[in-house]
Amino acid sequence: MATKSKAKGNVAALTNDQQQQIVSGFQSLREEQTQLVSKTQDLEMDLKEHDLVLSTLRTITDKQRRCYRMIGGVLIEHTVGEVLPALESNREQIKNVIDTYKQKSEEKSKEIQTYKEKYDIHFASERNQQQLTGPSGDTTKSTSTSESTKEQIKDDSSNASQTQNSMNKNVKNSKSSGVLVDNDS
Fold it and tell me: pLDDT for 25-34, tens place per residue?
């Protein structure tokens, strides 16, 4: 769980509507970041599949050998010589998209950090650590909890569902680079 206190520079207490807007804004930023990370992981799995298929096809000396490439759920017959350049091109495109998603994820992380600092948002673990050490770093407990705990962000259940979604996506079968080589040619 996370706690949220009043906005910096704003002496007056926030209304419930303002608090809810801040919380929903923070949650949407975190959700966007999670989606970027999830997409990046999916693409990295596709990249590994492309690498595996490419390494296998590069060992084949006969470039006229038949192979079958799955495109959109349909197997299409090609030769190894035709498939190799297309797969290498796809691999490079996937790599570029992964780099773009990683950059966007880093930008989103900075945006979240700025948002946290702007509205003085702390997770419960951060708040507990701060209370144990005190603002000056000593081991006294902070007693200003009425001001610092105006609202709580419920993210335990969302973290659990995000973890489950991530696990489900990792198990997902990718068909984008599926290539079968015909042994009979």
Answer: 999 999 999 9
CA pair distance 98, 27, nearest whole angstrom? 24
Cα–Cα distances in Å, from 119 out to 10, 41, 52, 93? 10, 31, 47, 39
Contact 3, 151 (CB under 8 A): yes
Q: For residue 12, give the amino acid letter.
A: A
User: Average pLDDT by consecutive 10-residue portion of the chain (185 residues)?
Assistant: 47 80 94 97 98 96 94 95 96 98 97 94 79 59 38 42 42 40 47
Whether the CB-CB separation of 142 and 135 falls below 8 Å is answered with yes
**DSSP letter at 150?**
S
How far apart are alpha carbons 31 and 24 in whole angstroms?
10
Six-digit token pair at 46?
């596709």
Cβ 138 vs Cβ 25: under 8 Å: no
- Residue 60: what residue type? I
Q: What is the dihedral of CA 139, 143, 148, 154, to 10 degrees?
A: 70
Residue type, 72: G
CB atoms closer than 10 angstroms to residue 22 = 22
